[in-house]
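Ubiquitin carboxyl-terminal hydrolase
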Amino acid sequence: LCLKLIDSRDNSQTVIRLSKKASTRQLYEKVCKLRGIEQEKARIWDYFNKQRSTSPLDVSDQTLDDAMLQMDQDILLEVQVDNGISMDSTGNDLALVPIEPSRSSLTIAGGPALSNGHTTGYRFNQYPGSSFGSTFMDMDDGYDSYNTAKKGEKGGLAGLQNLGNTCFMNSALQCLVHTPDLAQYFLGDYSDEINTENPLGMHGELALAFGDLLRKLWSSGRAAVAPRAFKGKLARFAPQFSGYNQHDSQELLAFLLDGLHEDLNRVKQKPYIEMKDSGGRPDEEVANECWKNHKARNDSLIVDVFQGQYKSTLVCPVCSKVSITFDPFMYLTLPLPSTVTRTMTVTVFYANGSGLPMPFTVTLMKHGCCKDLILALSTACCLKIDEGLLLAEVYNHQIFRFFENPAELISSIKDDEHIVAYRFDRKQGGKIKLEIVNRWQEKSASDYLKGSERKLFGAPLVTYLEEEHLSGADIDIAVSKLLSPLRRTYSSAKAHGGKENGFLPEVIDELSNSHNESVETAELEDLCSRELSFQLSLTDERISSCKPIQKDSILKPGKHIKVLLDWTDDVHELYDPSYIKDLPVVHKTGFTVKKTRQEAISLFSCLDAFLTEEPLGPDDMWYCPQCKEHRQATKKLDLWMLPDVLVFHLKRFSYSRYLKNKLDTFVNFPILNLDLSKYMKSKDGESYVYDLFAISNHYGGLGGGHYTAYAKVNA
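Structure:
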């Protein structure tokens, strides 16, 4: 700790550095040695916010952390002179009068009033080693006497001081303090419900500290309160919130609700209960049984007010085993639709050469599989019943892999990859797969001297062939079919001399201006009697070797044939390669994309996204009791029972391997009459309508921001 020591004699300031685990005795020793005074004549006061505490620090083994001393705060030194008088910086006498805590109607947990730091007629049962109630220093600043609100003024108007990046804590506290059920409970007598024996709790200390703070906020008018004592308890039981770093308000709220529940749990000895499978029983019976078992181990105000129940359905993708459980929840973490869905762009090619390639952008669930992507693309491109789609990844202008497993997750597809889909007739599926890789010659001034370099370009073309024994002529005809949509348009007045890549000028003109199928068929038959129209080479998977294909070449049968197509000048004259160049990536991201404000979405759409069925991730596999193996099951959540106070958490922070982001999508929600009845799966006939009374806001981004809170004060 760095503490700023202020000497009351001359107002001089000195920085003292000590471990927060050092004792107050060590603090006295260091200060007295530094100032050259006797320890018996020194008094050190907690001087946080330039306000002196009700009593000086004791010379004891209490740690500075337990004494609620914090980083960079002030402490005040007073020195007693021989005549019993301490001198201030002006030389005036300051009479030292013994300080005694004021006698007020202040009580802890609704017990009898404190007098001189001790309870009268009531003593809280402390667990061994507990420091709670040991000294008056455990209470928040100003706790020695409640500042009564002005006459006619409502309570609950007090603010919380920021102790240094504690806005996340303050906003969550204000929401809880203004929860009517909590306020009524902690303003009353709750001493009998403090559970000091619960090993999962904080021995009642967290509940007492929260109750203490709540009473101050409801009794101090409009004066701001410094929640130092509460933060000290929080740091003690949740070290992740110690110090003065920024944190997530929802994480604090989740810990606080859970901690308050354990400290107020009415169940002293939790029974062991073996959970049973639904076994085909009615949902109502299973839900009641699960809730009864939950209440047998967890029974507190927090459960009564904040906890609901949802139905979880898991289905095994192999044996179709259905498992239904009913689990309690404290809050609903709702994803924004943009965080659970993914936009993907895929270029669709015709495997029979009947149309130009066309990119389609579809939106589907992030945890979806290739089957979902194919279904979305089928709808987007108006796929016929007898047609199918073959997904593939294009890398370095050739097929890197085919997505032939429909269950493969789309999470394996990265945003910067190029994905294509080949549209084919289902009757041809499973036959010989022909992949055409495009190659051209790059010419420069030096190329004429040393020869031109051949480079791959564009997207590969894929089709299916039915014949088992293929010749070079069969491959040539297939290539001609695939390239037919790319044919350039020529005017009939244009004349050419000689042959154009195996075509007579009259044939070129006729093919360019006629789309009659009979003419194209005649053309293909005519090609069979001529030399090959294209320069084709048979190659292997890595294109490490090339073997020219002749008209009478016989190709070895196989499931996958890879052929190189050289785009000569003649081919360029006939076909336009721009249609197969510059494939779009799956999703364009990065700083080059102009960020636009997304359209507003409703709270109901967030709830719909939360309740949507989705497959479990590969790291969250479910053990199927029927298959006796871990399976990637589908999971569906449904709301079964809602609590009196419903907490919604909007997941605005998203994290990936390369990027952290906060979604600024506007979520629209009603302030009054939020009706969730239509989402309830239980048919109890009740109406579930809610009114908003508190909200925790975060402004800014992940790099820095600020939390505030709005709360409704009931009359």
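The mean pLDDT is 80.
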